[in-house]
Design a protein that fits this description.
alpha/beta; 19% strand; three-stranded antiparallel β-sheet; Rossmann fold; seven-stranded mixed β-sheet; binds 6-phosphogluconic acid; 31% helix
């Protein structure tokens, strides 16, 4: 079931499995709509645990797609932890384990953040150059990702845009090295202008623990410094909140119809 709310689609489904199946269907449909004749299909993956099942689904879908169609998928990351690729906390490592290895994605289609770089600012600059090169951008231009997958933390963060952190205000750069004091570390994250230039953004939100923050984000006051997920509003694209019944538990019924 879908509900428009301020040009936002809120789809409430049964559980994480249905979130994953629905998201996979939306991504594949979006890729098919685009067709490979219009160039690569660019997908920015999210970190955390929620996307794991979706990755498995996409890998399954890949096995049913023509090689030509699947080879058109290019993978990016909305954010990355400041750790080496083999680190247990690496979003890239999680994606390899749940999707990229099993779906035989060619190396040249994988655009990871070189987060092993000791200086997070340099890692962010390198990723920004990767985006500028792949999307053939001039200075000041934004990439237009075909699809961005995002999650939400119980503190209202998304990607590595955490409450009261500097990256929330970044309007010029494509990628930021964001100091997150609560973790005593930097995170590398695409910036709000990049996310909001995407053609399609899908938030994946599962579980009862997310219900209070989801209500604050969707129905509470506009407080983006405290709830960075509120900053995500595609300027010329589609925004879908794909949530399960447990995460939707605090939403008013009008949003869930
Ligand atoms: C990350 C993610 C982060 C994640 C949320 C939700 O690097 O961790 O980008 O923004 O999406 O923290 O995480 P869960 O899916 O584990 O709840």
């Amino acid at each position: 079931m879908a509900k428009k709310n301020l040009h936002v689609e809120i789809k409430v489904v049964k559980d994480l499995d249905e979130i994953s199946r629905t998201a996979a269907d939306v991504v594949i449909h979006q890729a098919n709509e685009r067709g490979s004749s219009s160039g690569p299909f660019t997908l920015a993956l999210s970190g955390g645990s929620t996307p794991r099942l979706l990755h498995n689904r996409l890998s399954l879908e890949a096995s049913k797609m023509s090689r030509r169609a699947w080879k058109n998928f290019h993978f990016f990351w909305g954010d990355e932890r400041h750790v080496p690729a083999e680190h247990p906390q690496s979003n890239y490592r999680m994606a390899c384990e749940t999707l990229l290895n099993s779906a035989a994605v060619p190396a040249q289609n994988i655009h990871r953040v070189y987060a092993e770089e000791p200086d997070a600012v340099i890692a962010a600059e390198k990723y920004e150059r990767e985006l500028q090169s792949f999307f053939n951008l001039n200075t000041g231009q934004l990439p237009r990702l075909d699809c961005v997958l995002l999650g939400v933390g119980t503190d209202g963060h998304t990607a590595s845009l955490f409450p009261a952190t500097n990256a929330l205000k970044e309007k010029r750069r494509l990628v930021a090295a964001n100091r997150v004091e609560k973790f005593q570390t930097h995170r590398i994250t695409m910036t709000v202008p990049v996310f909001n230039n995407a053609a399609l953004i899908i938030f994946l939100v599962s579980g009862k623990q997310k219900a209070p923050v989801l209500r604050e984000i969707l129905e509470g006051d506009n407080r983006p410094d405290l709830l960075p997920a509120q900053l995500i509003r595609p300027t010329n694209g589609r925004l879908i909140w794909l949530v399960d019944q447990a995460a939707a538990g605090c939403l008013s019924d009008s949003l869930k119809v």
